[in-house]
Write a structure and sequence with these properties.
Blueprint lengths: L2 H16 L18 H8 L3 H8 L3 H8 L7 H12 L3 H7 L2
Helix pairs in contact: 3-4
């Protein structure tokens, strides 16, 4: 199967799934633990501005997470879960360590 055929098949499956036909669907659910953003940031020793910049979000977004007005989802939640396990992970990666 060519790359084009594979992509086309995947898109057709996605459209079928979106229409509610779950018969041939493969659904992958990934569960990521809830994170305490303020605690994670404090463990890094960074200010709110520094931490927000290091993970690529606006300071206002970080403040909303820390105050519970909003909650990180998707890639941000995964990144924060990684930082919770190893607070230096972002700095290590940015330094090329």
């Amino acid at each position: 199967m060519s790359a084009f055929e594979s992509i086309t098949k995947g898109l057709e499956e996605a459209l079928t799934f979106a229409d509610g036909d779950l018969a041939d669907a493969r659904v992958h659910e990934v569960s990521v633990a809830e994170v305490d953003v303020a605690e994670i940031r404090q463990r890094t020793g960074l200010s709110q501005a520094e931490f927000a910049k290091s993970i690529g979000v606006a300071k206002g977004t970080l403040l909303n997470w820390e105050h519970g007005r909003r909650h990180p989802t998707g890639p941000a939640q995964v990144l924060l879960a990684l930082i919770a396990k190893k607070p230096s992970v972002v700095q290590d990666l940015l330094r090329g360590a």
